[in-house]
Design a protein that fits this description.
Its EC number is 1.1.1.37. The chain is α/β, with parallel strands linked by helices. The chain contains eleven helices and 14 strands.
Length: about 325
């Protein structure tokens, strides 16, 4: 049997954690023959709730789950971790400005970045889910300068999955027919699902769904506002679909991408498509199973260029607001 891989999850007693942990422990993150140890990180007031989650995990008797470490100590939490899934963050409260939120979460991600660098395994890779995830990831990455920048990711896969489903419903096809649909930029209401490059059943999406107005007036706003629509309907933010997207993201990173498809994740830009280097920007990506690369050579029309720059500008603004947290 393989040695267990240690997976650290912050915000482990939260809603996404509740969906995510059973999927990791049952082998859906790293495969059906890979044992795992879960390192569950919470803040002190949530340790009681976390105890309940631990009991439930124990009661699943997962064959692959070789240990559970519940803790509010970052050094213990990230010790020997090969994957860190940073889910926990402080939600925006009424009257709170974006700058305040960025500042509060910035402090969390500063210390988590440092603790990851000091304690994690040498092959550590980190996926940030907690919002604002691109900028939280930027902060953690910059506070862990010894960890290569290509090991840091912020999640936009949920937006991609949402967008694929909207195209599939409109075209009346299975979601598996929709490919090459990437999210560009920030995981926020400025993100851009570039439908011009998407395919449906192997044809250009714009040849299958020819109603141009639908994309602009319906598709893009639906995808951008989907999180808010779920909060309105459920009274709680998306959790099972977010956990599912986190599992999908890791699978996309560690497995070879099919030749006719791409996937979305925010990575540290090296200036691809003219985006400011160093921003955590979501691009169409491919993996060869080991390394990731940004898909090059996509022609962006005037509409797409405007959207790609608008979401970049938002990321630049967020970066400027947390400049004092970036060493
Ligand atoms: P919950 O409020 O249910 O859970 C968050 C948990 O994080 C709580 O248990 C809290 O105690 C813990 N926490 C807070 N600060 C912490 C710290 N410093 N260290 C460790 N744990 C800490 O939120 P949930 O619904 O699980 O959402 C978690 C995050 O995911 C939120 O920031 C949310 O905005 C974000 N999302 C990101 C998505 C994405 O696509 N990137 C989509 C879903 C979700 O909205």
């Amino acid at each position: 049997m393989k040695n267990p891989v240690h997976v650290a999850v912050t915000g482990a007693a939260g809603q996404i954690g509740y969906s995510l942990l059973v999927r990791i422990a049952s082998g859906q993150l790293l495969g059906p023959d890979q044992p795992v140890v879960l390192r569950l990180i919470e803040i002190e007031p949530a340790m009681g709730a976390l105890e309940g989650v631990v009991m439930e995990l124990q009661d699943c008797a997962f064959p692959l789950l070789k240990g559970i470490v519940p803790t509010c100590d970052l050094a213990e939490g990230f010790n020997n971790a090969s994957w860190a899934m940073l889910v926990g963050s402080v939600p925006r409260k009424a009257g709170m400005e974006r700058k305040d939120l960025l500042g509060i979460n910035g402090k969390i991600f500063t210390s988590q970045g440092k603790a990851i660098q000091e304690n994690a395994a040498s092959d550590i890779r980190t996926l940030v889910v907690g919002n604002p995830c691109n900028t939280n990831c930027l902060i953690a990455m910059n506070n862990a300068p010894d960890i290569p920048k290509d090991r840091w990711f912020a999640m936009t896969k949920l937006d991609e999955n949402r967008a694929k489903t909207q195209l599939a419903i409109k075209a009346g096809v299975d979601t598996t027919e929709v490919k090459n649909l990437a999210i560009w930029g920030n995981h926020s209401s400025t993100m851009y699902p570039n439908y011009f490059d998407a395919t449906i059943g192997g044809k250009a999406a714009t040849d299958v769904i020819t109603d141009e107005a639908w994309y602009k007036d319906d598709f893009i706003p639906t995808v951008q506002q989907r999180g808010a629509a779920i909060i309105k309907a459920r009274g709680l933010s998306s959790a099972a679909s977010a956990a599912n997207a986190a599992i999908d993201t890791v699978a996309n990173i560690v497995r070879k991408t099919p030749s006719d498809d791409v996937f979305s994740v925010a990575i540290c830009s090296q200036g691809e498509y003219g985006i400011e280097p160093g921003l955590m920007y979501s691009y169409p990506m491919k993996s060869d199973g080991e390394k990731l690369s940004v898909v090059e050579g996509i022609e962006l029309n005037a509409f797409s260029k405007e959207k790609v720059v608008a979401t970049e500008n938002e990321l630049k603004e967020e970066k400027a607001m947390v400049a004092d947290l970036l060493p």
